[in-house]
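Hi support team,

I'm filing this because I wasn't sure whether my run with zinc ion finished correctly. The job status page said complete, but I'd like someone to confirm that the output block is well-formed before I use it downstream. Pasting the exact inputs I used:
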Amino acid sequence: VTTLRGNLVLPDRVIEGWLEVNEGRIAAMGAGPARSSAVTDLGGGYLLPGLVDMHCHGGGGAGFDQGAAHAREAARFHAAAGTTSVVASIGTSTPDRLREHVTELASCVHDGTLVGLHLEGPYLNPRRCGAHRPDLLRLPDPGELEDVLAAADGTVAMVTLAPELAGGMSMVERLRAAAVRVAVGHTDATAAQTTAAFDAGATVATHLFNGMRPVHHREGGPVLAALQDRRVACELICDGHHVAADVCRLVFDVLEPGRLLLVTDACPAAGMPDGPYRLGGEEVVLHHGAVRTADGRSLAGSALTLLDAVRNVVSWSLPLPRAVRAASLDPATVLGLTDRGRLEPGLRADVVVTDEHLQVRAVMRDGSWL
Ligand SMILES: [Zn+2]
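And here is everything the job wrote out:
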């Protein structure tokens, strides 16, 4: 039995207390002094639930689209930074490469390195392609989808698509029938088209504001459709480059807890020095915390870890428990991971120990220190 003492970050408050871990589970927890004497005291630090990132392309110099060995390296990088559960996002590529990627990564899901795969594309709107290669985008193709889902062997957790493309709406229905979550993103849909996709079963908006038709006061587009639909959760990239701090605060105000998902959309440059990196076979450049395509035309994911995002949001005057749940409990719930996401007896012992400035001191995953 391991006993930790510190400020426990719960979904709605912070309490000074203790937490016991036994055989990979949180065995007990409470406020005040610990009942055991053999206590690891953290001296004013925080205990957070292990963070859950549902949109991530890599980190620590490695990409999820560079084979299983690199995928494990990227997952290790994020775990050491506090993200104990990560979904690997696969960007747009050729049909052959896409099938190869999911085949390689399925093994990483089966062995617990990843919690699932997120296909970001290829059925995206070229008008809102961001860093995705427009020449590789294609219209929803049910035959290709069947192939990819078969190659992925049940590991695809979510697909991002643009529902306004020809065949987009029926693809939403096909994915729902296959028990795959559907996210609306890289889309030029109107508000009405977006709502139709939600009616058909889409439940997530991929990095709200980024890669979608912007808000106009006569056409609210996907942003307002998603914000106003209680069936839908919204991803937000809080690196200070993708969305301004005041817009982020507004979104936190508008969305009830459970509907805002902090994601990194991190690329291999996360945790690395300024310079060139590879993303989806293309060169991207990290400079002063922003990652862009080599031609500078678009942001190309972020250099965040999820704990960086939590720290940013807190520095923008949002409450710590709300920021943490948006990076743990809420994405876990969206992903159907009921055994993690908060500090609670009986759940998996995924715990991030930080100092008072939310810098990582130690990470426990499944009851073991990393
Ligand atoms: Zn992405």
